[in-house]
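**Fold tokens**
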Amino acid sequence: MTDLKDERFDRRSVPADAIEAPRIGPDGWEFRKLDWQQDQPRGSILFMTGRADFYEKYLETLHDFHARGWNVTSVDWRGQGGSGRCGPHPHVGHIDDFATWVDDLVALFDQWRASHPGPHVVMGHSMGGHLLLRALTEQRIHPDAVILSAPMLAPAGGGMPEWTAQLIAKIMCIIGRAARRAWKPIENPLEPYVPRQALLTHDADRYSDEFFWFRERPFVRLGPASWRWVERAYASTRSLRNRRRLMRMEIPILVLATSTDELVDHPTIEHAVHLMPKAEMKLFGPEAAHEIFREVDDVRNDALNACFSFLDRVAPKQ
């Protein structure tokens, strides 16, 4: 096993040889993209973040793969990070339908695959993993391998049936609150909030990186999701859990998950992994929270080594 701790890498600085540039989508939407290439790449990775995320949060993870010889690319989703906003409030995560994001991903993937050498690997965390798996099960993208980190296949329990939660969100949309926030933000969004940290990572330093970027680049900050996001999230996760589509998945997939995840439902992830013919899972317990790639060193190293081993097996250099 490789010890991946690298004190020389600065998580709070974009590498000098990484290129940040806008990307214009087919409909004219301007996305923010980071592209970090190699002279002689081992292959190319497209990394897509979770809800309310931005690529700066995962610079360390991008570095880990880049150091292994991969080209790495990450693009902020429409409506978050540096890719504009879809609703009237800059700190509310709003979307008309998750299908919009799937369309964005398909267009991005096609362009990226044509311009970057293979093997082509897509990675997605949480909501990003959900959207990747939707595009995959709908047979709209065809990478060589896939890595999903705590994919949002169903929201974590909370004591309320899904149909009830979706009905409440639908009612809020009907009465004109579709673009309003669905829950309250933390009191001070520029300071770390311990209960929120407990949901995401045990590593206080990595958690605080997010707030550094809020101060350094205020435009990346996003708060609660809108009621429309909530309603469409339930609809999208339900459609994704299509047994026949999952059983037809022939692309090698590694799923990183934690059994104690409080944001996404672990049993649903495990069920999906069992259905997909070429899927395997690296499972953590209470030592890992939702953001596995931003966990303490022991957990991160274990997860990253699982990724490297998986890619060496299923996506050797071409």
